[in-house]
């Protein structure tokens, strides 16, 4: 059996190639250059989850890679806009200047916009899912997961928290995270079931635990991480006095909670037996990663 | 036969209601409020074109209204982002404070993002087109028309023009307009043919002439318009020293060119005979409008 790191790396290469190929179909412009730049690198964990959940449902990567590229385009757009001065005001991303630093704010706004458009365009491609019905289900669920009921809602809650009189409590942080990070991870992990018209319940349970573990790990990296590995300004949340899982649970409490969630994610995959071992390893990986 | 103003007004009411109903399905948030605010008002000319081209192909408004709402959501998102300080820096839109003035820049960025997401989500709804294949064709063509090969490309060219050493010539202005305004108008006018699986060639020819006439009329309004009617800061392009159709052709030349384009748009509808009279009136309207 393939190991998780090998599967992740193969998926990352495949998804990045598909995404860059789609960007390359656009007419030359500064926005196209900035899109290619913003889509480069990263772990491509979300794209991997799409391909792996597709495989679990008997769908080959060639029949699902455009959906995997689509979720990475959504993720890339959200990072470009998140990094803007009016949002998180970050100048480094994956160790490189952010788009508005390398170009300018207007280019960064348009680049994020066009990456989102590209994501939805990818879902109409024949290699997004084996059937028209599958493509339309992916479309409807991605719009729900990434818009004003999902990722953007989480970002809006995050911004509201910054000016709130009192720090968020654990329930509020969990709700915020469910939108901001969780919704895209859940969509990715469920994509294969949705392409196949199968029940996504087990993958939803897996993804919800995984998404929360992922965010806790991110908060821990933010405190403990090494700037060279994580490639972004660290301890930012701490400096901003923002409530995080770590500030609410403590470092040891947050680590224990992340371990529980990983076990929960792995248990949720019981219906898939040994076929889901790579997804089980993926859950372990999110709390062991260093960047 | 219905007259164009009656058809436009009926379409505007129907499309706005569908769009607001979709926004109302989102969980409460400042972004949802700002989306509802940004989607309010306007002529809804693009939504009208979708419903009217659907009618021409035997498709009832109830089977197409989500597609009409989708294009208006795209248009609204583009205005919210265009108005941002890093872009056109406008504080008034349709006579009201723009989203970043009424709320703040972060909210405006997220509101535009979520309106775009909503647009694509609407195309997955049963009332976007009578068939799955129709919905997917609308999705693929809207992604092309609104992204880095269409509207966003036009905006990028527009920004580049502002810092260019020499003003744009007529060909460059025409290419810029084809992306910035033309692509969405073309998508709207062709939507009915695409829903029905019919050849959109006649509607493409109509829309290309209409879109150009629309932009020339906009440039003329910018020079001659009345601030109370147009509801936005006027003579902005002139102040910025930007090349426009009016600066290149003169007021009389621009008016003559717009009249020729309207005739061209009307002629392109020959295959539809009298059934397309409302679209013929629409072409006349775009150069006669006062705001």
Automatic annotation (TrEMBL), chains A, B:
The keyword NADP is assigned to this record: no
One of the record's GO molecular function terms: geranylgeranyl diphosphate synthase activity
EC numbers for this chain: 2.5.1.29
Keywords (A to Z) from UniProt: Carotenoid biosynthesis, Chlorophyll biosynthesis, Isoprene biosynthesis, Magnesium, Metal-binding, Photosynthesis, Transferase
InterPro entries per UniProt: Isoprenoid_synthase_dom_sf (IPR008949), Polyprenyl_synt (IPR000092), Polyprenyl_synt_CS (IPR033749), Prenyl_diphosphate_synthase (IPR053378)
Cofactor(s) needed by this chain: Mg(2+)
PANTHER family in alphabetical order: FARNESYL DIPHOSPHATE SYNTHASE
Family of this protein: Belongs to the FPP/GGPP synthase family.
Function field: Catalyzes the condensation of farnesyl diphosphate (FPP) and isopentenyl diphosphate (IPP) to yield geranylgeranyl diphosphate (GGPP) needed for biosynthesis of carotenoids and diterpenes.
Protein name from the UniProt record: Geranylgeranyl diphosphate synthase
Organism the protein comes from: Roseibaca calidilacus
Gene field: ispA
């Amino acid at each position: 059996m393939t190991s998780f790191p090998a599967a992740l790396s193969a998926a990352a290469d495949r998804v990045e190639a598909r995404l860059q190929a789609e960007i390359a179909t656009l007419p030359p412009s500064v926005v196209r250059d900035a899109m290619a730049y913003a889509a480069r690198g990263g772990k491509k964990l979300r794209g991997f989850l799409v391909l792996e959940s597709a495989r679990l449902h008997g769908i080959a990567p060639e029949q699902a890679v455009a959906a995997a590229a689509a979720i990475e385009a959504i993720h890339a757009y959200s990072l470009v806009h998140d990094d803007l001065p009016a949002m998180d005001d970050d100048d480094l991303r994956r160790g490189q200047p952010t788009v508005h630093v390398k170009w300018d704010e207007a280019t960064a706004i348009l680049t994020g916009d066009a990456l989102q458009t590209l994501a939805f365009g990818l879902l109409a491609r024949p290699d997004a899912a084996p059937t028209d019905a599958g493509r339309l289900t992916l479309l409807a669920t991605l719009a729900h997961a990434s818009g004003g009921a999902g990722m953007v809602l989480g970002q809006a809650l995050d911004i509201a928290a910054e000016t709130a009189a009192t720090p968020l409590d654990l329930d509020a942080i969990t709700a915020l995270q469910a939108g901001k990070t969780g919704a895209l991870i859940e969509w990715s992990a469920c994509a294969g079931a949705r392409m196949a018209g199968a029940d996504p319940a087990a993958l939803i349970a897996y993804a919800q635990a995984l998404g929360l573990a992922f965010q806790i790990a991110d908060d821990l990296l933010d405190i403990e991480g090494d700037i060279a590995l994580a490639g972004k300004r660290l301890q930012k949340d701490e400096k901003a006095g923002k409530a995080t899982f770590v500030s609410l649970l403590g470092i040891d409490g947050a680590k224990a909670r992340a371990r529980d969630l990983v076990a929960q994610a792995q248990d949720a995959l019981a219906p898939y037996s040994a076929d889901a071992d790579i997804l089980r390893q993926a859950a372990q990986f999110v709390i062991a990663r260093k960047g």
